Every structure is written in C-alpha cells, then in structure tokens.
Amino acid sequence: MTSSPLLILGMHRSGTSCLAGVLEDAGVWLGNVKRQSAHNAKGNRENPEVMALNDAVLSGFGAAWNAPPHGALTWDDRLAETRDQILTGYPTDRVWGFKDPRTLFTFDFWHAVLPQARLVGSLRHPIAVARSLQARNKMPLDQGIALWTAYNQRLHALAQIHDVQILSFDVSPAHYRANVARLINTLGLTPPSDQLGFFDEGLRHQTAGDADITLPADTATLYAQLQEAAIA
Fold it and tell me: What SUPFAM superfamilies is this protein classified in (predicted)?
C-alpha cells in the first residue's frame, strides 16, 4: 500500500469513537464502519472485519477485550492472510485508517505489515471509563479501573517507542476542539467545514466527578504520565 494509514488507539469508552469520527470528517477513509449503536449514538466507527480479526488473534491466547493477554502475541498464516485480505479493501490513493481499542494488544500483528502507520490515541480518566463500562456492561468499578490500567499501560509503552499523538478527552469542549484542530493540521488533513461538529459534548455521559474512589497508585501515576504526554 502506498498511502499512509492511521491507527486510532485507546481504551474502550475513552473517546476513540469521537476521535475517529472527527478524523473521518477531516478526510480519513474508515470504510464500512458502525455508525450507530445502542451505547453510542454516532456509532463506534469500527470496521467489523478488523474487530473480528483482533478478537481472533486475542482468542488464540485465551484472551479477549476484557481479559487482556500477557506477553507477546504470535499468529499463524491463516490470521495473517485474513489481515492482508482486509487491508486490500483500503484505498491506496488517500489517507485511510481504522479504530479498535483491541489494536493496543494486537499492535505488532498490524505493524508487521504497516510499519509506516501513524498513531493517534485518546485518553480519558479511569473513573469515567469505569463508570461507562459499569453502565454498558455491568462491570464492577474496580474491574473497569484495572482494565483501563492494562490498556493504557500498553498505550504508554507504545508511546515510548513510536510517535503517538495523544488527545485527552477530559478537557473542556473548546480545548478539545482546539487540540483536535492542531492534530488535523499535524496530520496534514483538511479541517471539516462544520468546525468539528462531530464532537458533541452531550455524548459524554460519565465523568470522573467527586466520587469517593481512590485510584491505585500505579493507575493514578499512569494517568498523570499520559496527560503530560497529551497534546496541550
């Protein structure tokens, strides 16, 4: 492929769908993605084929989206062939990309054939994410926080090796729009004519708030590190 792909990374319920939608409006070709769902009014913007393949790679290690793998992944020729077939469906004459939180754990699987990929990430407070998972999946808050930590440890590790442009989903709407505009400019995309109208503050149903929840020390430190690394 001659075009430069864009991989949109981040924990579930962390604003990755919003980021994908804004970037799609700025010209990134996402293809046949989900544009509406019960828990996401504008859709998760995920390619079902990519999501299913990521699930297959994870399941080979007894892992899943809510049970991350331990250690490095390997894959067989059948999975590699499916990956390569999926990638033939993306254009070669324009910027394209895909978004799936699972890619944080299957990154090496994709990067093996997409070494030129550019990486962007979305960050959201662990308590807000845990509350969202509790509402959607009835997941206990402590389990949601632990899952947030596992995903974002991977995001932080990738950011130590690769150039990952991270946006915080916790900033004010005006600040978020300004940061996305900066990202669009950095990526060489075309700002949408509606001034980033895809972003809708009303879609943020959960916040960190003032809950009587103490984050584990490693989680709190990780969040602070990623906030420090995010676009200011």
Answer: P-loop containing nucleoside triphosphate hydrolases (SSF52540)
